[in-house]
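Thread: Modeling a multi-component assembly for a lab meeting

Hi all, long-time lurker, first post. My supervisor asked me to bring a structural picture of a complex we are working on to next week's group meeting, and I have zero experience with this. I have the sequence lines for every component (777 residues in total). Could someone generate the structure of the whole assembly? Inputs are pasted exactly as I received them:
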Amino acid sequence: MDLTIKPEYRQFREEVRAFLEANLTPDLREAGRLATSVFHDVERSMAWQKILHKKGWAAPHWPQAYGGTGWDVVQRAIFAEECLMANAPAGIPMGLHMCGPCIIGCGTQEQKDYYLPRILSGEDFWCQGYSEPGAGSDLASLQCSAESDGDDYIINGTKIWTTYAHYANKIFCLVRTNKNCKPQEGITFLLIDMNTPGITVEPIIGLDMIREQNTVFFDNVRVPKANRIGAENAGWTVAKYLLMFERGGQEYAPALHYALNRVKEIAEQEAGSFGGKLSEDAAFMRRVHEVEIEITALEFTENRIKAALGSGQSPGALASMTKILGTEISQKVTELAIEAVGVYGLPLQVDAIQPGANLPFVGPEYALTAMPRYLNTRATTIYGGSNEVQRGIIAKMVLGL
Amino acid sequence: MNFDLSEEQQMLVDSIGKFLKNDYPFETRRKLANSELGFSAQNWKTFAELGWLSVPFSADNGGFGGTSVDMMLMHEQFGTALVTEPVIPTLILGGRLIELLGNNVQKETLLSAVIQGELQLALAYNERIARNNPAIVGCTARREGDSYVLNGEKIAVLNGHAANQILVTARLSGDVSSANGISVFVVDANAAGLQRKPYQTVDGLRAADLQLNNVKVPAANLLGTEGAAFDAVETVLDEATLALCAEAVGAMEVLYKTTVDYSKTRKQFGMPIGKFQVLQFRMVDMFMAHEQCKSMIYMAALRSLEGRAAARKAVSAVKVQIGKAGRKIGQEAVQLHGGMGMTDELNVGYYFKRLTAIDALFGNVDFHLARYGLVA
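Re: Modeling a multi-component assembly
Sure thing. I ran the full set together rather than chain by chain. Output:
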């Protein structure tokens, strides 16, 4: 048992750092710095993806045969950490992290050859059509229907919470192809062009007053059967492949440490209410330290998972645990941030946080993102399988209840 | 970075696990806790024969040369069975302090006796005015010829009832809260002027309060240089705190698993209570709290290898996490066991009470949060 870092990893970190130093322009870093959601500014994220793609680093977690880097789990974590510290815009996940892996796992050779390079290059911009107004946590109850018509399906229904659908030219959907069976057994995975007639996209404005999500309506939309991934009615299995692909791969602790350190910096700048600085307010700092200790525990839980992955073990339902802990702690961190900025969390100035806006704003710059982040982060315990769903998974899979 | 056990570590864990399984069932533990001594002298001999009492000492002093990681693994095992044998007081608080401060004669005589299982030790550092802070020492020492004369009182001295020699912190100089001027003296348990008030603690262990009225201690029993003992005392308290936290993690594991098992058999409203989502979620939170604590003892054991500054911060962090999680897991275990959780009949209450006691020892959550803030 030891914490020593192999020299080759140090060297790798240096290599990543040098690349970021040379390629991340101030514009790109601004997008990372001002981001208030896991979904960063589209234009700059995609510009950054092109740079990464040129280097061969757009999809580190993909198998090398499809354009991955061949990095192990530790190298991938180092890369993610360095990108975070350098304020690189985060990759938009729907193509690289969601649709891509499904195509890799379950697509035909033809589909892989066509779609995967377009995901890597950013030529296709994907959005995800899973949730419906009546199918949230109970995703298998989804109703959006695909009726067979010769070589095509005819799609009718509604998808909701579709992040960045207004930027996307493609959507991957779970649709119902059989109503007379167990809900999971009548679902099919389809790739759909957003320009197909019959698709309309309507905005959903979030608590942060930002348009991130949409409702997507399908009215007799004709989709070739050739766009199906996997067999008809096997969509649930295709969707689950994604869970296997990245299980335990996501780390929360580095970003949480980073964000909490920003809170500490704010506390150095802000005045305490009864003299001194906020960073000298014992009650506030006690809460900062409590959260820091929780993050440290999560950091080592994630280290244990990485070590298990590295030696070929499966972390299993521990991925559910890190999702629960990571998101719940992130809510505590963003809550501390709005408390640190105090009344400067109140001015509504969404336009000023758009990268490149260069608009005048009220209050100190570090206060600009605090409230939008706090509001947006409430979503983290809801999406990606709500934390209640994740607790259900642990109860069943780990505790055998 | 890896979390695999070495072959030697695996052997240590396995041998303790085997002993506990064969020789330490809960009913045995219950009897031991209520016996005159509070633990088994026979077990102590066995610990010595199996080499466990040599683990934290360097090879130069006849020890196994173990690290904070070995001690952490050992105590996690002990925690699963709520072992009452005074490993922390004798090995860490006593033995390690002698190893850090003692001269060759002191180390040779005292440490070899500890390793052979022939000597019980205790550390008397805490006082009513100190509230667990080892720098606050009201107990005084003054030189008189070939002796030191000690006066004052000490509280909650773990293993104070059984120790043959008690290591006492006393002030030779400085303010009552100054880290400078503190010395450690090896005081014979039967010394004239030393009054011991032993008592059983709520977790089935033993401690004692001490009164020192002009206790004469030979000058040869001073450990280290006059007035310069604080760093070593703080070091062994951190080592003891980490061991205690590891013990807590072992106890938490048994407690949450016992609760999950119970919820699968206890039926109400026509079904096992473990089928109720509201209870499932609470047990998931117990499971996660234990996993986070396990990560923390690994963190603290490994960071402790990096030196004192890292150890200080890491140990306070782990004590905070364990204190909170111990409360949560202990209280939830009692609640989910319902009325049975309130009885002396089940082992649940014993684990609950041990976790409650662990938070109070060596500084509770508030103490270590404040200390973390000072070193962070």
